[in-house]
Fold this protein.
Amino acid sequence: MSLIEIKNVVKYYKLGNEKNYALDHISLNVEEGEIIVILGPSGSGKTTLLNCMSGLEKVTSGKIMYDGKDICKYSDHKITKFRKKNIGFIFQTYNLLENLNVYENVLVGANLGNRKVDIDDILETVSLKRHKKKMMYQLSGGEQQRVSIARALAKNAKVMFCDEPTGALDEKTGKKVLEALVDANEKYKTTMIIITHNPGIQYIGDKIVRLNSGKIVSVEENKNKINPKDIPWG
Ligand SMILES: Nc1ncnc2c1ncn2[C@@H]1O[C@H](COP(=O)(O)OP(=O)(O)O)[C@@H](O)[C@H]1O
Ligand SMILES: [Mg+2]
């Protein structure tokens, strides 16, 4: 059995009388400890897929099974508990706590997790150590993105969903962040699902999934994984 089995998932949004299909019959298996990279143009359903897979959004129909249990059937309370226990998330829109500083935001992540982590160490990884006392409004977009990444790394969850984790970062910082993700994958067998616009990032994945217009166009096994340091950027 795969860790996650997505079966025939449909998600549409109603606009007046029209149905706008964000996900149009998606099926996909995710194995434990795997890195999956999802590529696709803007509007192809990447964020919707991630949100549904992680139980953040409800599907219109279909199943999302974790270890054989369909999380689409869970109550709100049960899904919140499930997410808290199993899921880490790097949001495209950061979702940081504005009235906490950098260190405290990352501490929130660490407190949700069940492993002891060194927050200064994580801040070092994302090059934010010297900003640790700053509030969110004092940070650039890229710095906020790194706080969001640090928070997810601190939680050290079983499955980590990353929505364009390097979208606001330059090559050097972006590669450092990807190294941290790959490191977590190797050290803790963290299952990673990474969305990106950057085609170079596909080469760090075990599996490469292409989306277009809410449909999976292809699923490819990547036999030649490369180190984030060596990927072509941009
Ligand atoms: N809350 C929403 N209400 C209506 N339409 C939405 C909503 N969220 C996403 N969509 C639509 O679903 C499609 C897929 O969006 P999204 O998953 O954000 O794509 P991507 O992340 O690949 O850019 C788009 O056509 C988008 O406009
Ligand atoms: Mg998106």
Q: What stands out?
A: Residues 31-62+80-230 form a domain with the Rossmann fold fold (CATH 3.40.50.300).
